Amino acid sequence: MNMPKVETVEKKIAWIVSGVLGVIICLTAILLLRDSPLFDEYFLLAVVITVFPPAVLDYVDYRWKRSIDKHLPDLFRSIVQAQKTGMTLPQAMEEASKRNYGPLTKELKKMVAQMSWGVSFEEALRSFGKRVDTALVGRTVPLILEAQRAGGHVEKVFEPLEKFVQTTLTFDAERKTQTRPYLVIIYVAFFVFLFTIVMLFKSFFVDMSDFSTTQFTLMSPKEARSIFFHMSAIQAFFGGIVAGKMGEGTVGGGLKHSVILLTCGYLAFKFVV
Questions:
Q1: Is the pTM of this model over 0.85?
Q2: CA 188 from chain center: how many Å?
Q3: Which CATH number fits domain 69-170: 1.20.81.30, 3.30.1490.190, 1.10.3720.10, 3.40.50.2300?
Q4: pLDDT tens digits, 82-134
Q5: Which single residue of 150, 199, 218, 261 has CA 20 to 30 Å from 61?
Q6: Distances (CA, A) of 30 to 12, 34, 49, 64
């Protein structure tokens, strides 16, 4: 299933709306629940609500851009075949827009529509690059423009360009395969941390909560739970950010991991601790 395109303004709106909701929840907790056990939970809820909508939009946008890049080699291959039949580059683009390249087809149709309104091929291609805004498209658009200006056999440019894009996609897939074990390590480390906290809390702070001497007084279970809760939330949030940076190369890509880990940490403290 093709993911829809997410505009930059939609991401900004999501951050603003979720951020305002998060601030409202925080203020509510400060004003009404300062001494309540629910105080920490409300703050965690504020973080999740602030992060969750942008995380979803970032994931949808990532899938959309990945689908665009995935279909670029097929597009370049079609352009080469069309030009070998005598078509010009704009004609080859128009012919390619009639085929199915996932979300790339819609952007090609927009480009062809612009050219039919009198916009030059160069301007339409630049507009295409700005709309799509992926790393691979950003590298290939200038090369296409230079090849168009130079004239001659433009298909000789697209053949190595198609190989370059395919090689880049292959390397990217290999990098994700190699980094996947590290993502698993981050998740396993967090769950081991949670397990250690649960065992430590139940076997030490709870069982020995009544033990005290004149020289030594244990931390109360309530204080211990609060500290452990904060520690798990911090590790969950930043562990998710690191996972996204390693797996997708962006900090925004880690927001979804942060939400998952924060939710798991909250459930562990809610029902186990």
A1: no
A2: 21
A3: 1.20.81.30
A4: 877 888 888 888 888 888 888 889 999 999 899 889 888 889 888 998 888 88
A5: 261
A6: 27, 5, 17, 40
